[in-house]
Amino acid sequence: MPLTDAAAPAAPADDALWWRSAVIYQVYVRSFADSDGDGTGDLRGVRSRLGYLKELGVDALWFNPWYPSPLADGGYDVADYRDIHPAFGTLADAELLIAEAAALGIRTIIDIVPNHVSSEHPWFQAALAAGPGSPERERFWFHPGKGPNGDEMPTRWVSNFQGDTWTRTTEPDGTPGEWYLHLFTPEQPDLNWNHPDVRAEHEDILRFWFDRGVAGVRIDSAGLLIKDPALPEVPDVVEPGAHPTEDRDEVHDVYRAWRRIADSYDGTRVLVGEVWVPDASRFAAYLRPDEMHTAFNFDFMSRPWDAAELRASIDLMLDAHAPVGAPSTWVLSNHDVTRPVTRYGREDSSFAFAKKRFGTPTDLELGRRRARAAALLTAALPGSLYLYQGDELGLPEVELPREVLDDPMHFRSGGVDPGRDGCRVPLPWRGTSAPYGFSPDGAAAAPWLPQPPEWAALSVQAQEADPASMLWLYRQALRIRRREAALGDGPMTWVDRGPEVLCFRRGDDLVSITNLGRASVALPDHESILLASAPLEDGLLPTDATAWLRVPPANS
């Protein structure tokens, strides 16, 4: 499909290493801004808010899947990679957005979901129609069942969304047929990455979007592509690389091929992996110079608000990245994770999907104070920074009524898990009542998820007028981060200020200090305070606060 004349790809000022220090803002299109009043965010809505994103100080936008999809899993069930979901706009809208953002110096990163497609994808529909033993089925994991009549699933593998990983087909005559594999929902059949068609198709998809000016791709579930064709059960003790569906060695051949494609384009086109691998050395293998550029750091995001835990995570991730020379990434949340303001106000401030439950109490005042401190802490760490939409506003997680929930994680848990919709509620832009400027005035439809009444005080409009707001803090932090060469990628050195304090030097004359203890602490000798997440108390840094300091040069 040719590019539209109005949207020839443009690129921000050339910087081959932009990705090593970039501030990347995650856009969940469905909840960002609704331009046409149908209650669903869209690409024209994003285009109308590019000025806000420029003012915030971000370097790139990462978009969750924006493709045609039945939305069985929020768009991660892709039916067509070369078009845009009609609710979000058109391919021409995407091309304009990429070009207009680039003109403002903002790059675009899109999501690729290579492990599976939608059950409505033409390939899967053709496989169902073609029947057992057909070439069309070889692109997926169709398999006879076990037992005399094939009534038992081929394996007892457990879904990432809980429940079974195999669904049985029905033949045209109504008799039970083969089973097909889905590590997520039945509407997301897994692709067979041993098949050359699958590899060729995804390489062509990369070229399609790179041709349209996209600066990078985020690779969903990057470690799950390759399966053991023998279909063994998961052993009680899994040796590294021996899991039948996770982190198998052959997956690296896929990303080496993708890297060759990315490197064939002008400018640096980056590969960013969603890699859930607990072994640090195997995690780092995805970041070798001929594979991905960076990978998400889930460890830091999952740790509790505790000095020893956070320092251990920082050391772990920096040590894991060092052998391959890759920068770490830092993030406090995303479209799957409980928002920081809520999480950090809980008795257990760590994150794990298995622990999510309705009615978990939280102290939002405490959570907001800690989220402010965490914002400056992460922005001072070496590497790139990811920011999920709404975290710059300090939005809390919303506990939604069960009847409006849309997330399959909720339904596949038997209703025990509240799911991920609480961090996906549409953003508040202005005004004192819903939809808070998310949709145009007089919109015919309400936002696809309801916004709580207390969000009036958290809108962009309200916070722009408040120097004590979370938005002001983020804007100031990102301006300083852009101005100070020592921030972003580069070395850091720990400074010992006690077991409850995280203090480190960046460059020759900048120090970040975070107090996670119960008592206020003295600041190191400094010339000035560049920024603080909370006011000092009698010259001391209060509990749950971070300050950035200009200090005398280390060699003075």
TrEMBL record:
Name of one Pfam family that matches: Alpha-amylase
GO molecular function, one term: alpha-amylase activity
InterPro entries according to UniProt: GH, GH13_cat_dom, O16G_dom_2
Glycosyl hydrolase family 13 catalytic domain span: 26-424
Name this protein carries in UniProt: Glycoside hydrolase family 13 protein
GO biological process: oligosaccharide catabolic process
Keywords: Hydrolase
Gene3D superfamilies (UniProt xref): Glycosidases (3.20.20.80), Oligo-1,6-glucosidase, Domain 2 (3.90.400.10)
Top-level taxonomic group: Bacteria
Species for this entry: Agromyces sp. G08B096
Protein family per UniProt: Belongs to the glycosyl hydrolase 13 family.
